[in-house]
Amino acid sequence: MREAPTLNTRGSGNVATRDRGLVWHPYAPLNGPEPYAVSGASGVRLSLSCPDGSSAEVVDAMASWWCAVHGYGHPALNAAAHRQIDDFSHVMFGGLTHEPAVELAERLVAMAPGPMAHVFYADSGSVSVEVALKLALQYQAATGSPQRQRFLTIRGGYHGDTFAAMSVCDPVDGMHSAFPGVLASHLFAPRPPLARVDADGRWTTDEEALDRWTADFRSLAATHAGELAAIVVEPVLQGAGGMRPYDPRCVQVMREVADEHGLLLIADEIATGFGRTGRLFACEWAGVTPDVMCVGKALTGGYLSLAAVLMTSRVGAAITGSSFGALLHGPTFMANPLACAVASASLDLLGDSWAVNVARVASGLRAGLAPALELASVREVRTVGAVGVIQLDRAVDVPAVTAAAVRNGVWVRPFRDLVYTMPPYVTTDDDIATICAGMVAAVREVHQ
């Protein structure tokens, strides 16, 4: 067993040294590699103090885990935050309301795919999934099927780190396989076959594999229909489960199956929403309207944690007409006014520019990552919208690849066998080229 590191005395040493052994980081041990310390963030760049004592300015290829779509320190978002702080930064949402929450809800239902009618605010993406799952169970009970308490999803999915969300993540290859005894048992259909999308928005996949998947999905749903409450899915692109795109026709099949068996379709658009895949919401690739949709991450442009659960009027009416009359959840910071105000400003910035910017970023990623295919360790290069992936034939040496990328002026956070980028939409063509060149150079240096 590795010994826990000795804690540092408060205030002594640099921030990264003081951090190590004191602060937990995501999916990392307390005595893991020393982190990079951020001393500034502006535009699409981070100023770093590196573990070797050097300093670096890097292009952020991760948009801070996909949320900082407008970059850092944007004047419009800063101004929105200051205005709201001058009014009030937080009030409880129980029995009270306020303009930022109502305005944002109006905008979300107006821009969502199909006839969304109601909004429930949550603290984070994971919590929004928890709420959506609760909502589906309450819906089934309210409509006379309280025995429907399981969920159908697909292998390779990721929906968050809280317990109900973990239970619908991949049960074997996912990060949460360490909790098998306490997670609810749900149904997992096979992963849809890998697909590709070209610059004109045309998807291609193995048609025979797609037919087999469709038959398997329909059969599994039919066999267990009487116990299922909903289908839960990341439409078109599985994120933390492998950055894996699949054919929109699979989402169409899920919609048809949900309708056939009286299930809700829950779309987890936390990572894919607000333009990331090349459509404002990934469901639009399939021409599908979900019954429930979770959004987060890019919602506030990376300024504050906020998520939302959108639902149709049919779902809202069922809950309202139930014995409880309410959706049984209520976070302390629900509809935080500061976060809602910044979110509305973020939607203003998205405007019509997101589509042009995402298409431009996509073009740069396709061209810039293609040279990685010349490397022996690279199994595949794929892109969808403003997402670019280099998949290796082995697990990534994360500390080494990260350090190599920083030396090439780029911040990445690889995982599993993937070195990938989901940059801010405002990243310039030159900076996209820097990101791609840095990723390729890092893979070449570490993995040949």
How would you describe this protein?
With 448 residues, the chain is α/β, with parallel strands linked by helices. The chain has 13 helices and 18 strands. The protein has helices spanning 15-19, 63-66, 75-87, 99-111, 125-142, 163-167, 207-224, 248-261, 313-320, 337-350, 353-369, 398-407, 429-447; strands at 37-42, 45-49, 55-60, 116-122, 150-154, 187-189, 195-197, 203-205, 228-233, 237-238, 244-245, 264-268, 292-295, 307-312, 378-383, 388-392, 410-411, 418-421. The strands form 5 sheets. It has a 7-stranded mixed β-sheet, sandwiched between helices. A 4-stranded mixed β-sheet has the order 1-2-3-17. Strands 15-16-18 form a 3-stranded antiparallel β-sheet. A hairpin with a 4-residue loop joins strand 15 and strand 16 (388-392). Helix 3 (75-87) packs antiparallel against helix 10 and helix 12 packs across helix 13. GO terms for molecular function: adenosylmethionine-8-amino-7-oxononanoate transaminase activity; pyridoxal phosphate binding. Pyridoxal 5'-phosphate binds at residues 125-126, 268, 331-332. Catalyzes the transfer of the alpha-amino group from S-adenosyl-L-methionine (SAM) to 7-keto-8-aminopelargonic acid (KAPA) to form 7,8-diaminopelargonic acid (DAPA). It is the only aminotransferase known to utilize SAM as an amino donor. Substrate binds at residues 65, 158, 297, 330, 413.
Explain the layout of strands and helices.
Blueprint: H1 15-19, E1 37-42, E2 45-49, E3 55-60, H2 63-66, H3 75-87, H4 99-111, E4 116-122, H5 125-142, E5 150-154, H6 163-167, E6 187-189, E7 195-197, E8 203-205, H7 207-224, E9 228-233, E10 237-238, E11 244-245, H8 248-261, E12 264-268, E13 292-295, E14 307-312, H9 313-320, H10 337-350, H11 353-369, E15 378-383, E16 388-392, H12 398-407, E17 410-411, E18 418-421, H13 429-447
Parallel strand pairs: 3-17, 5-6, 5-9, 9-12, 12-13
Antiparallel strand pairs: 1-2, 2-3, 4-14, 7-8, 10-11, 13-14, 15-16, 16-18
